[in-house]
Amino acid sequence: MTVTKSKQSVFLLPMFLLTFAMTQGLSNLSSVFAQENGTSKSLLSIVFSKQQPSLLEKGNPATSASDTQVPAPTGAQKLSQVQIPNDVANRRVNGRASHAMFNINMPPINAETSPIVSVSGLVPMNAGDQDLHTDQQPRQLRRFPVEPDPNDIPSIVPIEKPDRSDVISNPVLDPSHTNDDSFSLASAMQNNSRAAGTQRQVPTPDDHSSDAHLHEINVSAMKSAMFNGIQPGVTLKNEVIERMEGPPNLVTPVDAVTEVLIYDLGELGRMEITIQQSKVFSIVWLLPEPYPSEQIRKEGLESELRGIRAIHVPDSNGYILGMIFPEKGVIFSFVKSNEPGVPLPMVTQVIVEPLTSWPFELRGERYLTISNAKAKWDLTIAVQLDPNNHRARWLLAKAFLADDQLVEAQRECKFAIQLMADQPQYHVTLAEIIGTAGYTKEARQYLDSLMPYCSNSPQLKGHVEYLLGDFYRDDSSTQDLLAASKYYETAINTVKPLLESTNPTLRQQAKLILMKTYLSMAQSISLSNWGGKEESLPPWLDGAETFALNMVMDDNTTREYLLEVAVKTIGVHANCPELGGLEKAIDKLQKVTDEIVSQTDDESTVRRIENQYASALYDIGQVYEERGDMQQATQYAKKAIQYFERNLSDNDDVASIYRLANLYYQLGTLEASGQASRPPVKPDKKAHARAAGWFAKAIPLFQQIEASLDQYEQPVLGQMYVSIGVTYWEVGEKSYAVQITEYGVGKLEDAVDNELIAGKILATPYINLSNMYEEMGRKDEAESYYLLSKQAANNNLAGGSSTKKTR
Fold first, then answer.
1. CA 759 to CA 119: how far, in whole Å?
2. Which of 49, 338, 483, 528 gives 73 a disulfide partner, CB atoms 3.0 to 4.6 angstroms apart?
């Protein structure tokens, strides 16, 4: 159908809309539209409701925490079997990495496992062997020079994947050594290959939201929409006159290369076609009166706009000005709303424009709080359409950061800063990436230098204060929980007034910062040695949940905020096993995980959610083990393994692999001690055979990552290998038992050399080796290790070099 300039009934409007011959393509909001209507590209359009002001005023936990005199926090946390310096608690909290690219702090073993009980005189390492030097210095972070220029910040250096060591590769497990016809090591390994449970069905990924399809985006194949055969960026001026069946009623020059052709459509309004350099730049149809957007969309453009994620356009105060359909290049201009965040969807103009970046930047920013996968899709399109769109690159960095893709996040954020260095929020995000990678001191230095540039933006200043608190809490070398709590209090006071803002975006930003700050305060309290934890922790956790619920219910944000609260609440219980309410927290965790997974079709999202869930299950198992409920600990450990295993990939981060390996080890120790049975039984060969099945799965994972762990984790691995050696000895794999025990002893000797552990810790593994060699008939080795065990017991070892000489 063609459009003529004759008068037509206004009731023919839907038929006129059908003349929009829309092709697959993208478009951008007119710069004129943005300027004339005061559109702010930095704000989101979200429907908000007023935050209850009493939430922070009634019984403010921050105030009560600050009024209490507390001793200096130690952050001490016990490890399994071997203690190392007082940085381990925050390492469990801070165990984040990007696909094994960073040598970050690893989560330790969080609770002492039950000792392996030997039936032939070999002694596992236990808590009695764990004396430390009292003057032990805390670990030092790897340091980078920080130049005065805030742009020249420390680079995050990827680690190289270590070659798999064959030193303690798994032996061929011989079932004959069990002397039990009804049970074998092979069957134990087979039975333990995966915890019981059904396999989840892998969802079909949405090719417009999945990370797996980002590389397939091809913006060169995208085309803007057409109207009456007129396409912005393509159609020439003389072709416009032909398709509009005559010359325009009026031609208005704008500058030397731009003019506007105005067509009077009678009762159908007016058409303004902007020509730049002899080609159509934009088409604007001004309707004779406002029409409901749903009428235009459904009756006139249903086939063209079906399935498109439309995005509202707010002005700087949050009033909704219009709606964009980026893939089609269609823009609806609304009558200005009467309430911020609430659109008045009566269309006054329909606009079509050529391909540009901004609609995807706007929609990507909005979807950062709804679906991170969809946000990355939109923002990737935005930077492909305009590689110099610094704001889209910064938002893309935030999306990568949310998924712990730190290499990609750093790349995009540095690019944004190179393009526009005077935006403090870009630098804040880069500091957050650095701190998340484990370089907390460098991140604090960077944030301190940025603070003067944030004073005019309460939401940015509050975000910086919250991050500073986290990085003081997570700094392994100089952890300061008291300083962290003060920064959290300051952040709360900074953003609290924004809850009363008329701007819905500012209110949502305030709620998000407050949610995260409340959770961080709870984590810091749980890691401290402060008194009254059982009374002070629930208000912080409840407050965080209230903010998360408010954002989900009133602001239409992602339910992953509720998952974040649930996972971190479990983490607080892991730090404080005596805290009440664990079962209620587990129930909330289960419900929100099920809801999110059931409502997404994106495989990468499911994998991320299930890994968070598995980490929480890991912590739940630690709590029950600390409480002495070994049956519950075993149950949750097996459930965590189920999720870790089915999402394991070659790109997994070191922290996830460490957790899975440690779960295998802990289940092995429970089996070897008889505590995995109900009721507990005296260990026998069958119990050790079941334990060996788990250890056989743990060893290759420890081997895969041990070169990535720092020197403080090495003696922990050494202790594990020594204890594993006991089990292999019990099942008859004597040669391998000696091999893995000596390998573990080597790590412990190195730790003694480096003054990380006391020499007398070696007494147990030395006597184990002496007994092993004695039974194997190798008297000289047995005698040497016996003498070394005596020296170690008296703490007379002068270090690993001296012990090797004696041997």
1. 26
2. 528
Q: Is 391 left (phi over 0), alpha (psi -120 to 50) or beta?
A: alpha
| Distance, CA of 526 to CA of 537 (rounded, Å) | 8
Q: What pLDDT, on a 0 to 100 scale, did the predictor assign at position 737?
A: 92
Q: How far apart are CA 398 and CA 11, in angstroms?
A: 47
Contact 48, 507 (CB under 8 A): yes
Residue type, 675: Q
Sheet holding 270-276, edge to edge: 250-253, 258-264, 270-276, 279-292, 346-352, 330-334, 320-325, 311-314
Cα–Cα distance measured from residue 356 to residue 41, given in angstroms and rounded to the nearest whole number: 14
State residue 498's pLDDT score: 96
Average pLDDT, the chain: 74
Cα(first)–Cα(last) distance of the chain, in Å?
Answer: 96
316: phi then psi, degrees, rounded to nearest 5: -65, -15
Burial per residue of 335-359, b for 16 or more beta-carbon CB atoms within 10 angstroms, e otherwise: ebbeebbbbebbbbbbbbbbbbbbb
User: In whole angstroms, what is the distance from residue 532 CA to residue 554 CA?
Assistant: 34
763/769 Cα distance (integer angstroms) = 10
CA separation (Å) from 631 to 379, 613, 678? 47, 20, 7
Q: Which of 30, 26, 31 is nearest to 355 (CA)?
A: 26
Q: What is the pLDDT of residue 355?
A: 80
- Say how far residue 632 (Cα) sits from the centre of its chain: 28
- The SS3 call for residue 535 is helix
270-276 vs 258-264, strand pairing mode: antiparallel
Q: Are 369 and 48 a contacting pair, CB within 8 Å? A: no
Residue 254 CA to residue 756 CA, distance in Å, equals 76
Q: Which residues contact 613 (CB under 8 A, 6 or more apart)?
A: 563, 567, 589, 593, 643
Adjacent-strand bridge partners of 313: 322
User: What is the reported pLDDT for 337?
Assistant: 83
**252 phi/psi in degrees, rounded to 5:** -115, 110
Q: How many CB atoms lie within 10 A of CB 787?
A: 14
Segments of the chain scoring below 50 in pLDDT: 1-121, 123-167, 169-209, 799-807
**Contact in structure between 127 and 81 (CB atoms under 8 Å):** yes
Pair of tokens at residue 105: 């702090």
Sequence-distant (6+) residues with CB within 8 A of 782 are: 770, 771, 772, 773, 774
Q: Are 313 and 30 in contact (CB under 8 A)?
A: no
Q: What pLDDT does residue 477 have? A: 77
Distance CA 276, CA 256 (A): 9
* pLDDT at res. 490: 96
In angstroms, the Cα distances linking 177 to 23, 642, 778 are: 72, 29, 21
Confirm if 354 and 281 have CB atoms less than 8 A apart: yes
Asked whether 15 and 299 are in contact (CB, 8 A), the reply is no
How high is the pLDDT of residue 63? 34
Query: b/e for 139-159, b at 16 or more Cβ within 10 A?
Result: bebeeeeeeeebeebbebeee
How far is Cα of residue 125 from the mean position of the Cα atoms in its chain?
A: 35
Radius of gyration of the chain (CA): 32
Among residues 40, 253, 99, the alpha carbon closest in space to that of 705 is found at: 99
Nearest to 476 by CA among 513, 444, 447: 444
What pLDDT score does 713 carry?
Answer: 86
- Specify whether the CB–CB gap between 20 and 227 falls below 8 A: yes
